[in-house]
Amino acid sequence: MQAVIFAGGTLRPSLLIEEALRQADLILAADGGAESALRLGRQPEVVLGDLDSLAPALAAQLEAAGCRFVQTPVEKNETDSELALQYAIEQGATAVTILGAWGGARCDHALANVLLLAAYDQVAVRLIDGPSICWLLRGPGVTQVRGQVGDLVSLLPLAGDAEGVATQGLYYSLHGETLVFGRPRGVSNQLIQPEASVTLVSGQLLIIHTRSDLL
Fold it and tell me: Which residues contact 69 (CB under 8 A, 6 or more apart)?
């Protein structure tokens, strides 16, 4: 089951987002993310969070339309986005796409959303915004990047060094090298063929694929 979560950050519409919504079996909103969902013509089935950033009039409109609310205390250990992710997993989601994970007034929320990729390994989680898709590769493992020649691909180590990184189909090729945590060496690589592969021996590697035709 594929779930889509609207987080509370700014959201740049794109063909990638439209595709994710077409494939969604379950649409959730984390608090104020419900506004982004409605702007795209989608009503979330469930809104989760402390509801501190959702206008009461809009909440009433959603409730009248049959949307379910799972309200939590303001003082809690999880962000609203994490609560929505947990809920999606509990409902049986095997893949989760988070929209609106970037931008907004709070850069700390954006960083927290990225770190969710490292915390939840039982399902495939990705972030989509505008022309970019972001996901996490855990070592040992391999992932494919499919797109068009000229697409940007950035490889960023997360929570420590990424060791044994090897690539095929990227302009700057790697051959079992280590990408050091905190160093941006892997930014702005490019696809030189429609499909590339990234292999990782150990560590965690953030993959960010930006479609050149959507920039």
Answer: 46, 47, 48, 51, 59, 62, 63
Instruction: Return the CATH number of the domain spanning residue range 135-210.
Output: 3.40.50.10240
CATH tag, 2-130? 3.40.50.10240
All structural domains of the chain with their residue ranges: 2-130, 135-210
E-only strand ranges, the chain: 2-6, 26-30, 46-49, 68-71, 95-99, 124-129, 132-138, 141-146, 152-157, 162-168, 175-179, 189-190, 195-200, 204-210
What mean pLDDT comes out for the span 92-102? 96
Confidence label for 6 from pLDDT (cuts 50, 70 and 90): very high
d(CA 88, CA 137): 21
- Tell me how far apart the alpha carbons of residues 192 and 120 are, in angstroms, rounded to a whole number: 31
Tokens of 136: 């996490």
Q: Is the pTM of this model over 0.90?
A: yes
Burial of 118 (0-12, 13-18, 19+ CB in 10 A): middle
H or E element, residue 39: helix 33-39
